[in-house]
Amino acid sequence: MQQFIRKVKIFLEMIKFEHSIFALPFAYMGAILGAVVLTGELPEWSKIGWVTLAMIGARTAAMSLNRVIDKKYDKKNPRTAGRAIPAGLISITEVMLFVALSFLLLFWSAAQLNMLSVYLLPVAVFFLVFYSYTKRFTWACHFVLGITLGLAPLGGWVAITGEITLASLVLFITVAMWSAGFDLIYACQDVEFDREEGLHSFPGRFGIPTALITAKILHVLTAVGLIALFFMTSLSWLYLVGILIAYIILFYEHRLVSPKDLSKLNTAFFTMNGVLSAVVFTFTLIDVLMESFK
Known about the structure:
Elements: H1 2-14, H2 24-39, H3 45-69, H4 71-76, H5 92-111, H6 115-119, H7 121-134, H8 141-161, H9 166-187, H10 191-197, H11 202-206, H12 208-232, H13 237-255, H14 265-292
């Protein structure tokens, strides 16, 4: 049992389970907004539970596969050489067992929600697996990741409503642009390694200054998407307060990095983006709760 617990701890560290805060709040946001738009009421707790399990399954499977697929490069890259697989802390067989269990959890959870969630599973699984290969052949890999993470709020919406609407697509595109933008920033630290290994990335192809400018443009579009949701739903001024804070976070995030100084990149990537997603969801939830009490 102690050995199993140790392996689980290593596994959770390997997939950075704590970074689920990036996408999970947006999945909840999609679920809540979908329910309010469709019925005017909050979603059932049981459905939120299934959405949570589906997200855990999807992210765990995706991150585990990414670590397996990238093991050769992780071993060569000084930044990632200490990860569980290249360091020999966990075997490929053990990781693939976790992958299988994670996909099983995803399928089982989707089946408890509605048929559209089940029908869309192949699309979700495709992007979860496909993303890890994209750096082999295209600098657009960051945008594929954006699409993959953007499926979280869209999946939350579909899980509750059983349908796709214009507002749900706007939320999907908004989160996709936000995700692609912060991944462009994150990729700047591996430019030299990517070029040496023949891997493709936007910063490696166009340079760090262009990558940071593109990330700013994507995050401006993210801000536009968030305000568009205000006009497409019944959200009130409380939501606007939340997205104003999100705008400030995005601005500060870009102030932390520059082409000549990437020393604060991890703060910009991990801390600020985690805070942003939590803030947007929290103010959305408070807004919806306040409206329901009227």
